[in-house]
Amino acid sequence: MGWYRALADGGPATPAELVARAGGAERYAREWLEQQASFGILTVEDGRFTLPAGAAEVLTDERSLSYLAPLARMFGAAAIQLPGLLEAYRTGGGVGWAAYGTDMRESQADMNRPWFSTMLPDALAGVADLHAMLGRPGARIADIGCGGGWSTIALAKAYPLARLEGVDIDAPSVELARRNAAEAGVADRVTFHHGDAAGLEAGGYDAGFAFECVHDMPRPVEVLAAIRRAVAPGAPVVIMDEAVQDAFQAPGDEVERLMYGFSLLICLPDGMAHQPSAGTGTVMRPATLKGYAQDAGFADLEILPIEDFGFWRFYRLTH
């Protein structure tokens, strides 16, 4: 509805003032404002409701690392699919990414955007040899499973001498990535393709990245093998995925609990929708990824010294 943003941009409002700014029905606006105030998200004085600065950052600042508003769209998109999820749990089938629709696709991109835009350049700059390679004039970099393109765009901005290619199997995500790249002013150095890693030019890339997507893939070994073929001999292959524990333990920590929640509703059903499937799920532990990498022909993996990067861990696959 844009009501949070109307309060953040325009200041305190009565229900009538809020709908005058952002539209909607006044009776529903009053109920919503009172509910939000009852939770302590909004404050109220003399009948006018205020969105405090801290809450405004979490709910409206698209560039803040604290931005969490997209989670509402994400869980809403999953809730719509509950009948399909129930059937998948009964039969062993799945619910594919395309079925979750625009809310899921855009919320995923919006959640990751501030981390890629704000943190990724410095994170990679802290790995000296990787940073040097990416900064070489004419370096050709592939971003597999690019989604809305924010990881590709961040790499392009951090390494202006490189050329970036993003690839994703979800056609609407590719179109979203193209629009985002154009708006970010990097479309002259970034291209996006609808397809999978098997379509990448053999030996044509100086580096390959896969950001938060390997755990979703029904056939991760095949994809990793395709990435290995696509990069030059010895070229870096970097996987960013969830920073879960090395082994299952109960009770789990907060990251573990959150990731199992995503897995139950989204990631595992997505992976299971395309058979045969590895059925990885969001909680992909380091040993699992290492097994996939070795089966794909890589020698080993190492955890890169990148810390405090949200819920994620960076791996480099060696070959």
Tell me what the structure shows:
The model has no long low-confidence stretch (mean pLDDT 97). It is globular and about 70 Å long. Helix content is 50%, strand content 14%. A 7-stranded mixed sheet has the order 5-4-3-6-7-9-8, with helices on both faces. The chain has a two-stranded antiparallel ribbon with strand order 1-2. The chain has helices at residues 3-10, 15-22, 26-39, 53-60, 70-80, 82-91, 97-125, 128-134, 150-158, 171-184, 220-230, 254-272, 286-295; strands spanning 43-45, 48-50, 140-144, 163-168, 190-194, 207-211, 237-242, 300-303, 312-318. It folds into 2 domains: 3-60, Arc Repressor Mutant, subunit A; 70-318, 3-Layer(aba) Sandwich (Rossmann fold), CATH 3.40.50.150. Helix 11 links the parallel strand 6 (207-211) and strand 7. It is an alpha/beta fold and 319 residues long. Helix 5 packs antiparallel against helix 7 and helix 7 runs parallel beside helix 9 (150-158). The longest helix has 29 residues, at 97-125.
